Amino acid sequence: MAMGPDQLAELVDRYAAALVLYARQWCACPEDVVQTAFLKLVRLRVPPDNLLPWLYRVVRNGAIDASRAARRRHKYESAAATAAPRWFAPSDDPTGLDALRHHLGVVCQPTRKT
Questions:
Q1: How would DSSP label each residue in 15-39?
Q2: Which letter does DSSP use for residue 94 in this model?
C-alpha cells in the first residue's frame, strides 16, 4: 500500500533534520538529498520493511553522488575557464587615462604663461 500524505508528513517531521545532518558530512546540498530520498520513498508501491535504515542508506548514497557530481562539475568548469580567452586584458595604465586620451585624440600639454 502506498504512503499517504499524513504518513509522509510525520516521517519528515520526525527524521528530516537528522537525515540532513547525516548527509552534510558528504555534500554541500544535504536538504536536496533528503528531499530526493523522501520522493523516492513516496514513489515506492510498498514501503520498505526497515524504513529508517532504508532512508539513511538512500540519503548516504545520494549525498556521495552529489559530492562526486560537484567535484566533477568544478573540475570541468575550471578547465573551461582556464581555456577560455580572457575578457579583459591587464592594462599597463592602471588609471586608464592614457587610453582615454588616445580615444579622444587629445594630447594634454601644459600651458605655460610667458
A1: HHHHHHHHHHTT-S-HHHHHHHHHH
A2: T
Q: How far apart are CA 60 and CA 42, in angstroms?
A: 18
Q: What pTM was estimated for this model as a whole? A: 0.69
Cβ 66 vs Cβ 27: under 8 Å: yes
Residues 3 and 47: beta-carbon distance below 8 Å: yes
Tell me the per-residue pLDDT of 32-87, one tens digit each, with 9 for 90 and over.
Answer: 999 999 999 999 999 899 999 999 999 999 999 999 999 999 988 888 878 767 66
Percent of the chain residues past pLDDT 70, beyond the cut: 75
List, in order, residues 6 or more apart from 24 with CB less than 8 Å away.
30, 63
Say how far apart CA 22 and CA 9 lie, in whole Å: 19
Is residue 37 packed enough to be buried (19+ CB in 10 Å), middle (13-18) or exposed (0-12)? buried
Rg (CA), the chain: 29
